[in-house]
TrEMBL record:
One of its GO terms (molecular function) is hydrolase activity. Coiled coil: none annotated. Residues 27-361 form the Beta-lactamase-related domain. InterPro entries: Beta-lactam-related (IPR001466), Beta-lactam/transpept-like (IPR012338), Beta-lactamase/esterase (IPR052907). The keyword Hydrolase applies. The lineage of its organism: Bacteria, Bacillati, Actinomycetota, Actinomycetes, Kitasatosporales. It comes from the Bacteria. Keywords: Hydrolase. Pfam families: Beta-lactamase. This is Serine hydrolase domain-containing protein. It comes from Streptomyces nondiastaticus.
């Protein structure tokens, strides 16, 4: 990476490669739009070479770690993609083949492909989960094995927000004898030296920054209140609002039990470097090591399997297998096989094989979704334009 430039406006630090100066300008501009106290990180690789490494705002460094919520799903399903690539898992085999107890209450014909495409209808449990259960994928899987789906599997799709990693993780555990967290550490994080932990070790706690609560405007507060889901709606069940102690989403990574357990749906901690580095490792290779995925495997998992009205989110969504299809759902200027996953607080991470671009964005304060999406879209557009020259 080149040395830092002299201009360090808006407390932005770090470096960009030649040709990526516009990315730095776009990142600096986001700080002018945010209230005081905003902090964020942005990193990117092209064909395995780092081209952007930026951070700014109070209290944050380039190596700081924050909770990345559902961006964790990308790490989990990279493990699944590897196992499918190696023939250990079969996407079209029924889940009961690996996990016999799952074949209950109308789920006997659900395939691994159905699970990964959010088509199983198993978005939560009738009584919800305790915090300790949410931190433990095996506890979630144990409850869901007997649970009746909320729609007939395969007839529709809806975001399995807190549980998809536990469901696919139980398939992984039954097939390999290893947990998703163990395989991610051994096959992905450690070999590639990634600052993206599914389960955060105690010795890394000093680098962790708690997620700050959203700071909404009065208009945003009204919007959130008027659009809050009912506790027993599909969205309420998916986000565990139906439990006697409803989950407060923005507080999840601030609980050590979540960070330590590393639930595969929501429990990861990372820097932007780690988010981008994982996707660089997936499609291009990193630090002298080969790409984790073949082009064929990457295309299979990016291919759209569910698109349209998401029954949980109540809006349009487009999912591949365990990943979102980023071109169809978020960034239409990207390649059709761009795949990745964002997180609730505002993190975003993906790979675009058409340009070799791998991106990680992370922020500390929980975002108002629409504002964050507009900001991240400008950042990703600037990155895409620079990478396409």
């Amino acid at each position: 990476m080149p040395t830092p430039t002299a201009a360090q406006t808006n407390a932005v630090q770090g470096t960009v490669a030649k040709g990526y100066e516009g990315v730095r300008e776009a990142f600096e501009a986001t700080f002018a739009e945010e209230r005081a106290g905003h902090s964020a990180q942005l990193a990117a690789y092209v064909h395995g070479e780092q081209v952007v490494d930026l951070w700014g705002g109070p209290g944050i460094e380039g190596a700081s770690l924050t909770g990345v919520f559902s961006s964790t799903k990308g790490a989990a399903h990279l493990v699944v993609a590897l196992l499918v690539q190696e023939g250990v898992l079969d996407l079209d085999r029924e889940v009961r083949h690996y996990w016999p107890e799952f074949a209950a209450a109308g789920k006997e014909h659900v395939t691994l492909r159905d699970l990964l495409a959010h088509r199983a209808g198993l978005v939560g449990a009738d009584a919800g989960f305790t915090l300790e259960e949410l931190a433990d994928d095996r506890a979630i899987a144990g409850k869901l094995a007997a649970q009746r789906p909320y729609w007939r599997p395969g007839t529709a799709f809806g975001y399995h927000a807190y549980v998809i990693g536990a469901l696919t993780g139980e398939v992984v555990r039954r097939a390999t004898g290893r947990t998703m967290q163990e395989l991610y550490e051994e096959r992905v994080r450690a070999p590639y030296g990634l600052d993206f932990y599914m389960a955060l070790p105690e010795e890394q706690e000093h680098r962790f920054l708690t997620t700050q609560p959203m700071d909404p405007t009065p208009a945003q507060t009204r919007f959130l209140q008027e659009n809050a889901p009912g506790a027993h709606s599909l969205s309420g069940i998916a986000f565990n609002l139906n439990h006697a102690v409803p989950t407060v989403l923005e507080e999840l990574p601030n609980h050590r039990v979540i960070r330590a357990g590393g639930p595969a749906s929501v429990g990861g901690t990372a820097s932007a470097r780690g988010l981008a580095g994982m996707y660089a490792a997936a499609i291009s290779g990193l630090n002298g090591k080969e790409a984790l995925l073949t082009p064929g495997t990457a295309a299979e998992f990016a291919q759209i399997h569910s698109a349209g009205h998401d029954l949980v989110l109540g809006a349009f969504a487009a999912f591949g297998l365990g990943f979102g299809n980023m071109s169809a759902d978020r960034f239409p200027f990207l390649g059709a096989r761009a795949f990745g996953h964002g997180g609730a607080a505002g993190s975003q991470a993906f790979a675009d094989p058409s340009t070799g671009l791998a991106v990680g964005f992370n922020r500390r304060r929980f975002a108002f979704r629409e504002d964050n999406h507009a900001q991240v879209t400008r950042l990703v557009r600037a990155l895409h334009e620079a990478a396409s020259i």
